[in-house]
Amino acid sequence: MSAGELEALDRRHVWHPYGAMPSALPARVVSEAEGVHLTFADGTRAIDGMSSWWCACHGHRHPHIQAAVAAQLARMPHVMFGGLTHEPAVRLAERLVALTPEGLEHVFFADSGSVAVEVAIKMVLQSARARAAPGRPAPTRLLALRGGYHGDTFGAMALCDPDGGMHRLWAGSLSEHVFADRPPGGFDAPVDPAWVATDERLLDRHAGELAGVVVEPVVQGAGGMWFWSPAYLPALRELCDRHGLLLVLDEIATGFGRTGALFAAEHAGVRPDVMCVGKALTGGTMTLAAALCTPAVAEAISAGEGGGLLHGPTFMANPLACAAALASTDLLLDGSWEGRVAAIEEGLRGGLAAARELVGVADVRVLGAIGVAQLDHPVDVPAATAAALAEGVWLRPFRDLVYTMPPFTSTPDEVAAIARAVVAAAASG
Ligand code: PLP
Q1: Would residue 413 show up in a list of annotated catalytic residues for this protein?
Q2: Residue 315 C-alpha to ligand 1 middle, in angstroms?
Q3: Active-site choice (250, 273, 400, 403)
Q4: Along the 429 residues of the chain, how does pLDDT read in single tens digits?
Q5: Nearest ligand 1 atom, CA 289
Q6: Does the model's pTM come out above 0.70?
Q7: Pocket lining: 351 vs ligand 1, CB cutoff 6 Å
Q8: Residue 248 exposure: Cα atoms within 13 Å on the Cβ side
Q9: What is the Cα–Cα distance from 65 to 47, expressed in whole angstroms?
Q10: Which atom of ligand 1 is nearest to the CA of 278?
Q11: Does a cis peptide bond (omega within 30 degrees of 0) precede residue 272?
Q12: Of the four listed, 273, 315, 331, 349, which is most buried by Cβ atoms within 10 Å?
């Protein structure tokens, strides 16, 4: 089928993310993805400056992941997970326990990041219910940060930034959680005692209603690409401990090296009670996510009403996805990601400096393999996309943000091209 025919059929039948039906603009047809490159149906290529929504950390079609998935496909693409188990799931669970912060011992696999967040919410609420004193109502609310994003399912949406639009649209249908301001300052900011005191008062005011705190550690992604200091993580841990709350870290965007640490929690050595991973877990090969928890959480849930965690997706722990995740984490285990991410950080810092000089650019920030140019107005997405493509780079800006999360395998020249594309997109949008 020609690219034109595919585009026309796509617009007639296929609904794209956050889009109207039919969409105002056609989607570009990609025919191939290899390494850091996407090849479009007209034969042109572009560097995937988004790592395909932050997943393809080793670039596309990495041979080690390809081989692992092919071998698994030949043996067993899928079996149900109720009453059955398999080596890829067992080995991946063991691997995740070893890689993630100490104390997380148990792994619940989910199909996507949003579903992992739903599972984490269930873990917190079910364990609070199990711990509630007899005759006392169990807490049903969580505390989350303004500016956050945790997914598009109803439980996850309820934790997203309350001013972000979703809450207005879904008022009456979403759980009503409690929101704290995001920690002030950037990655290097010292802890502001006023923020801690305000949160302490918030927790006191809602004592008895709250079961846990859910945050994206250090980088808030789709809620605004905000960076905050890891120094706040121990403060949050302490607040949770003092108030008897579980701490949930949503590392779906930050996990697997993106911020310069394998997990953002490691910037501060903080141990969460529950942690969500997803996105780069399979190196961008296919969907898989997980919620991990401590034995204390698992024991409370297992001893409580229901006798276990009440969740069980059809494609839970899909063997192909687990094989991809094992292969992707193999690639991280050799440690070379660290130097690559540091080099990307340096390249983005140098390359994005030019964006600071542009009229209409409010802020430029870089952390690990994340570069952001924030405008003082909404981005003209078609103009910004075209400007990036003219530099040979695929970017997908949103709201007032032009940003990149390059594959870790990007060469210095490719990082320089990505930075030029961000600057060009910021200038055009
Ligand atoms: N949590 C965070 C921090 C995310 O960035 C995302 C996706 O962007 C999600 C959850 C939802 O993940 P998914 O899109 O796989 O459902």
Answers
A1: no
A2: 18
A3: 250
A4: 899 999 999 999 999 999 999 988 889 999 999 999 999 999 999 999 999 999 999 999 999 999 999 999 999 999 999 999 999 999 999 999 999 999 999 999 999 999 999 999 999 999 999 988 888 889 999 999 999 999 999 999 999 999 977 778 888 999 999 999 999 999 999 999 999 999 999 999 999 999 999 999 999 999 999 999 999 999 999 999 999 999 999 999 999 999 999 999 999 999 999 999 999 999 999 999 999 999 999 999 999 888 999 999 999 999 999 999 999 999 999 999 999 999 999 999 999 999 999 999 999 999 999 999 999 999 999 999 999 999 999 999 999 999 999 999 999 999 999 999 999 999 996
A5: 15
A6: yes
A7: no
A8: 32
A9: 20
A10: 15
A11: no
A12: 273
Residue from 214, 279, 286, 288 whose mutation best tests the ligand 1 pocket (most atoms within 8 A of CB): 279
Residue ID of nearest Cα to ligand 1 atom 1: 150
Q: Catalytic: 232?
A: no
Ligand 1 mutation pick, 16, 51, 114, 153, max ligand atoms within 8 A of CB: 114
Rounded distance between C-alpha atoms, residue 288 and residue 320, angstroms:
10
**What is d(CA 378, CA 261) in angstroms, rounded to the nearest whole number?**
31
Distance from residue 129's CA to the centre of ligand 1 (Å): 26
For residues 318 and 278, give the distance between their C-alpha atoms in angstroms, rounded to a whole number. 14
